[in-house]
Amino acid sequence: MTDLADEHGVPIADIHLILLEAASRLLPGWERLYSERAEHVLRRKGIDVRLSSKLEKVEPTRVTFSGETLSTHTIVWAGGIRAPSLLASNGLSTGRQGRVLVDDYLRVTQYPAIYVAGDSALFVKAGQPLPATAALALRQGAYVATTIADEVNGQPIEPYRPSNPGMLVSLGGSDAVGDLLGVSLQGFAAGLVKESIERLYISTLTGKLPVIGRFRYDKTSFC
Ligand SMILES: Cc1cc2nc3c(=O)[nH]c(=O)nc-3n(C[C@H](O)[C@H](O)[C@H](O)COP(=O)(O)OP(=O)(O)OC[C@H]3O[C@@H](n4cnc5c(N)ncnc54)[C@H](O)[C@@H]3O)c2cc1C
Asked: With a 6 A CB cut-off, is 135 part of the ligand 1 pocket?
């Protein structure tokens, strides 16, 4: 935030960043330790974190949440996405966030000839829907490709077995929190891994080797 303010010549005192979170803690689906770490880091960066604050109304110059109204000209929605409405409007059974309910093979329950992978698929494991992440979407794409090839070749098909290498969430700058391959990470180490993963993904699109050029050591990541 300080770097951006400097870059654009905005006095830092003029910036008041408020984070509204409907749940009683940040990252509600995660372990409490990560929620606490994220809240601590964001508050330390000067962000006004308001928990149990559900957004009710957005107008051009103000927002209303939990009965309170704030004046603002800048609103950033980070409260999640929905799958394209095309899926439901074409008669597919959808659940949370408009995602299509799929069976153990990522096939649409009522149309087994149709596979759905990525954010649009609602695959439920042990009562919990899989999160919408790039890592899972990539693996599901590969699974669907292999399964269709097996079907075409008359081979038996294997059910989809989700494997999640972990999740890291950026806390700004060189700071992050989460776990990777069962190892809990936070601070600078997590930030470095997060940045490396993002660069790696980008390199798969550009075909060029990843470069971690913009990454900066930030001493506050250790606090
Ligand atoms: C702000 C943000 C930050 C994120 N950060 C992370 C992160 O750090 N790590 C992580 O793992 N995941 C992250 N994600 C989630 C990740 O981007 C998604 O899980 C991933 O992109 C899902 O891939 P997908 O192929 O299913 O869908 P998408 O990548 O959304 O691709 C779907 C494509 O289909 C196109 N499309 C939609 N409707 C139609 C139509 N009717 N006809 C033709 N094309 C259509 C869309 O334009 C889009 O290009 C983030 C998502 C957002 C929004």
From this structure: yes
Q: Which one of 3.40.190.170, 3.50.50.60, 1.10.10.10, 3.40.718.10 gives the CATH number of domain 86-152?
A: 3.50.50.60
Q: Give the tens place of pLDDT for each residue, 55-95.
A: 999 999 999 998 899 999 999 998 888 999 999 999 999 99
Greatest pairwise CA separation for the chain in angstroms: 67
Superfamily of domain 1-79 in the CATH hierarchy: FAD/NAD(P)-binding domain (3.50.50.60)
pLDDT digits (tens, 9 = 90+) for 31-49: 899 999 999 999 999 999 9
Indicate yes or no: pTM above 0.90.
no
Q: Whose CA is nearest to atom 50 of ligand 1?
A: 133
Q: How far is the CA of 145 from the centre of ligand 1 (A)?
A: 18
Secondary structure (3-state) at 200: helix
Q: Is the CB–ligand 1 distance for residue 81 below 6 Å? A: yes
pLDDT tens digit string along 165-179?
A: 888 889 987 899 998
State whether the beta carbon of 137 lies less than 6 angstroms from ligand 1: yes
Distances in Å between the alpha carbon of 72 and those of 41, 45, 62, 75, 130? 24, 20, 5, 7, 35
Would you say the CATH fold of 86-152 matches that of 1-79? yes
Q: Is 84 in the pocket of ligand 1 (CB under 6 A)?
A: yes
Contact 198, 59 (CB under 8 A): no
Average pLDDT over residues 217-222: 44
The pick from 133, 171, 196 for probing ligand 1's pocket by mutation, whose C-beta has the most ligand atoms within 8 angstroms, reads 133
